[in-house]
Amino acid sequence: MNFDLSEEQRLLRDNVERLLAKTYDFETRRKIAAGPEGFSRAAWARYADMGLLGLPFAEEDGGFGGGPVETMLVMECFGRALPLEPYFATAILSGALLRRAAAAELRATLVPLIGEGKLLLAFAHYEAQSRYLLHSIATTARREGDAYRIDGEKCLVLGGAEADKFLISARLSGATHSRDGIGLFLVDSSTPGLSRRSYRTQDGERAAALSFAALSVPASALICDDAAGAIDAAFDEALAALCAEAVGAMDEALKLTVDYLKTRVQFRVPLGSFQALQHRAADIYVALEQARSMTLFAVMGLSESDPHRRRTAALAAKARINESALFVGEQAVQLHGGIGMTMEYKLGHLFKRLTTIRRLFADTDHCLDQLAESESLLAAP
Amino acid sequence: MDLRFTDEDIAFRRELREFFAANLPEALRRKLEQGGKAEKHELVAWTRILNARGWATPHWPVEWGGTGWSPVQQMIFRDELQQFPAPEPLSFGVSMVAPVIFTFGSEAQKKRFLPRIANLDDWWCQGFSEPGAGSDLASLKTTARRDGDFYIVNGQKTWTTLAQYADWIFVLARTDPSAKKQKGISFLLIDMTTPGVTRRPIQLIDGSVEVNEIFFDDVRVPVENLVGEENKGWDYAKFLLANERNGQARVGLSKARLNRIRQLAAAAPGGGAPMRDNAAFRRKLAWLEIEARALEMTVLRVVCSESDEHGQPNPLSSILKLRGSELQQATTELLMDVVGSFALVDVAEAQPAPPDVEWAHGAAATYFNLRKLSIYGGANEIQRSIIAKSILGL
Ligand SMILES: Cc1cc2nc3c(=O)[nH]c(=O)nc-3n(C[C@H](O)[C@H](O)[C@H](O)COP(=O)(O)OP(=O)(O)OC[C@H]3O[C@@H](n4cnc5c(N)ncnc54)[C@H](O)[C@@H]3O)c2cc1C
Prior knowledge:
The structure holds 2 protein chains of 2 kinds. Chain A is α+β, with helices and mostly antiparallel strands. Chain A folds into 3 domains: 7-119, Butyryl-Coa Dehydrogenase, subunit A, domain 1 (Orthogonal Bundle); 123-226, Butyryl-CoA Dehydrogenase, subunit A, domain 2 (Beta Barrel), CATH 2.40.110.10; 229-379, Butyryl-CoA Dehydrogenase, subunit A, domain 3 (Up-down Bundle). Helices cover 51% and strands 16% of the residues of chain A. In chain A, the strands form 3 sheets. In chain A, strands 1-4-5-8 form a 4-stranded mixed sheet, with helices on one face. In chain A, strands 2-3-7-6 form a 4-stranded antiparallel sheet, with no helix packed on it. In chain A, helix 1 (7-23) runs parallel beside helix 4, helix 4 crosses helix 7 and helix 7 packs parallel to helix 9. Chain B has 3 domains: 7-89, Butyryl-Coa Dehydrogenase, subunit A, domain 1; 124-232, Butyryl-CoA Dehydrogenase, subunit A, domain 2, CATH 2.40.110.10; 248-391, Butyryl-CoA Dehydrogenase, subunit A, domain 3 (Up-down Bundle), CATH 1.20.140. Chain B has helices at 7-23, 26-33, 40-53, 71-83, 91-104, 107-118, 233-246, 251-267, 279-306, 317-339, 363-369, 380-391; strands spanning 124-127, 143-147, 150-161, 168-174, 185-191, 197-203, 209-222. In chain B, helix 5 (91-104) packs antiparallel against helix 6 (107-118) and helix 5 (91-104) packs across helix 7. Chain B is globular and about 75 Å long. The mean pLDDT of chain B is 92. At the A-B interface, helix 7, helix 8, helix 9 and helix 11 of A face helix 1, helix 8, helix 9, helix 10 and helix 12 of B. Bound molecules: flavin-adenine dinucleotide. Flavin-adenine dinucleotide is lined by residues 125-129, 134-135, 159-161, 210-211, 372, 375-376, 379, 381-382, 385 of chain B.
């Protein structure tokens, strides 16, 4: 057990931190958000140059062989600066799926493209009825000769507005909630029969609703015909990455709050001299550090060979992060007074991102219910 | 970064469990599991078993009987003791006064006291708090006036835990009445059988007698029982309190209690179905299990950074006392939830316990007793102030 970063890990973190500090301050972010695409192609190219886009992929597939710890470090930096590019959607979530579900030849063609920044991917999975159930898929895929015909609707496809290709989950067989019979298709976004409606989400990022009306894709588009295991694993990785991002955002929110308490003068003294506010700030710190600990727990869980244990760790971490995000976000706004309420100040955006993360993939009640179903979290050493 | 226990760590855990299972009387294990406490003779016997195995004082320097275990192994040892559950060696001796003695004491003090502490030949208690000096400990009034080769100690200590069993007490007393507050305090070791020392027990809200008042009336303490330098006692006290805070996470105890709650919930009547099937209860239990894991990871972060020897104590350690006490208290509340109204029976008054409430035994007493955790060892409000000041710079 060792929490120290290796030399390469430290370098990676410092480089990402420096890059974002130099090219992605809050004002820049505002301009990018107001631009036509809502994210920056130039920034994307810089991530490619730095090797971030290929980071989570194995070297034999053309990636840089980073693991969960490296992803955690990058995501924590992203959480502080809140860049708007679909890094999570492409490299983390879709990337995890590709790694687990795609055959070697396909990985060999796609991974270099992703790594060079030439391919934006999004995972079209979530459906209106799913809530937080990962295998709830009503979209169907029927074999018709040497093609598949896909019908259905997907919503809240993260990074879906700008994606060049989609990974689409669709049911080959079985009932809507069945774990069996989920296929995974790789489909070009310009394919006729696929229509996309893009929108902005509360955190300033972009997503899309997709509908497939007799979308016809060649049989070769089916990259995995039993994808539930890969989907589970991909979401476990995605949860850990989101937890790390939230830790970065909370860390930044605490920093802004402490700075504010030290500098804002009311009643002729800095706000930070009031004990009620000192103790609130201490509670924010505790919530943040417990979240950081659970992020490490989730990362640790990703190395578990037993998928059940991995899942439990990811959900446990997500629950803790959700509750910390709520407390830290709300209290940081409260301690800032009016300035915390404005779009012109970074804090509100951190809060909005934290609020988004809380609702992504698993809310606290869902996590707790899932954990309550399973063997005790304390069962292992 | 390597977020795994090594194979040796895992084997070590197994070795500990096997040793505890082979050497701890099952009746004592059961008693502890149900929230009971070890009697003096039980703790003495168990400490001697550990000491014979060389495990009574893992964190001491090796020359004085430490095991030389890595910080992670020491953490595993505490965790396994608490989860088993087995009694922990008396903290006032091995974790409070002993580190002060082996860090600041004289050679003669080390030779005289340390082996007896390790073997629990001497039972130690902590004489810091006074009626007028709680959170503001430095306002203490007990005096020690030098008179030849003796100090003459006068004053009163209170909340002294388990002093009813104690052979020795370590005391903060004012040796320089003219100096300001923190200055002028010294750290004295006092034999409880010295004439002029008297004790009065105080009953706590769980019904137990766990703390005492101690009165010092012209008590003659040989100068050789001064630790370190005269008037430097506050430094030693701060050192001691920091050690005390570190041991306060006690995640193993929370884990053990949560496991017990899980077991009880399988049978506890929940109105038609066992409590285990109650959705609200299940969420609470799952939440506290998460909290236990979170705190455990924080402990590991602290423990592993200690091993770096960067010098500075990890500021995270102030979280351990705060969250450790809150988590333990939350588990006792959930234990009350699971036993429901059966917790209301005062089992101490109804011996032998009526069979229908036997299984609920200890729930209420534990709940009431553990309110202390957020009060002693630096109350949680004080911990928050420490975090705000020393970590956040407010
Ligand atoms: C069961 C038990 C066992 C104990 N065992 C021992 C022992 O063995 N040896 C020993 O020396 N002592 C012992 N203590 C004493 C313990 O250390 C003190 O109770 C503790 O330091 C608090 O002091 P107090 O009780 O005087 O409360 P007070 O200091 O009067 O505090 C009362 C409340 O006010 C809050 N408060 C105080 N100051 C501030 C501030 N500046 N800002 C905000 N809030 C504040 C406190 O947090 C607390 O909530 C024990 C106490 C208990 C309950």
